[in-house]
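Consortium newsletter contribution from the modelling node. Members have asked for a concrete example of what our holo predictions look like. Here is one, prepared for the adenosine-5'-triphosphate complex that several groups have been discussing at recent meetings.
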Amino acid sequence: MSFFKVDQLSINFGGIKAVDGVSFDVDKGSVFTIIGPNGAGKTTIFNLVSRIYEPSGGRLVFEGNDITHVPPHRVAKLGIARTFQNIELFEHASLLQNLLLARHAHKQSSFFSELLFLPSVRRMEVEHREAVEKVIDFLDLQQYRESLIVNLPYGVRKVTELARALCTNPKLLLLDEPSSGLNVEETEDMAFWIQDIKNLLGITVLMVEHDMKLVSAVSDRVLALNYGRPLAQGSPQEVQSHPEVVRAYLGG
Ligand SMILES: Nc1ncnc2c1ncn2[C@@H]1O[C@H](COP(=O)(O)OP(=O)(O)OP(=O)(O)O)[C@@H](O)[C@H]1O
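And here is the predicted structure:
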C-alpha cells in the first residue's frame, strides 16, 4: 500500500486544464518534490491535496483512505500539514504564541471543559506547551521564542512557518517553495532542516521547489510538470537531465 497516492488528478479553471491527469506515489519516510516552470500547476496540486480546491477528476488516497472529498480541517486532523509560499503567521504575536495557536487550532477541547478548566484541559495545556517547546528546540529557535514575528528576519520567519506546521505532529508535511525569499546560506540551512525532519522525525515530505540545488540535496524522487501534465518522474538527476524537462525549462 502506498503511503500517499495521487491518481489521475485533474482540475479545470474555465478553459484552462491547470492539472491534467497527474499521478504519483509518495513513499513513507521519503521526500517527493514537484518541479516545473511558472504556471505548471504545482501550487494547484498543493491546493487540491490540502482540499482547498475540489478536483474535477481523480483521487487522493492517504494511508489507504480516500481523502478526495474530505473537508480541509479533516485533512489536518488526519496528519497532513502545510507551509505557505507567502508565510502565513500572525505578525503581531510572538513566535511562541503563533506555535501555541497552531496547536490549539489542531487539537481543541470542548467549550464546557475549557470553561470549567477541567483536569483534562490542564493536561492538554501541558501537552501543548511540551510539544511546542520540543519543536522550538528542534529548529533551534530558542532565542526568538518571545519575539514578535514582525520583528524577525525573513529567514527566521520561514523557519517559524516550518515550526508552525510541525507543531501539529504531521505524518505528511507539504512544503510550498521552502527556499523562496531565502539567500544561498539560508537555503542551505533549509536543506538541513528538511533532511532532519525526514531522518530524525520520520516525517514524509511533499514539496514544491524551484531551487534545483535544494531539490537535488533533499529529494528522493522528483516529478516534473508542464502545463498541468507530467513530463518526467524519477531521481533528481534523472529528471533534471530528461530531454523534455530541459526543453520545458529552456522554452524550446
Ligand atoms: N484559482 C484559480 N483560478 C483560475 N486559474 C487559476 C487558479 N489557480 C491557478 N490557476 C491557473 O492554473 C495554472 C497553474 O497555476 P499554478 O499556480 O498552480 O502554477 P505553479 O506551477 O504553482 O506556478 P508558480 O511557479 O508560478 O507558482 C496557471 O495557468 C494559473 O493561472
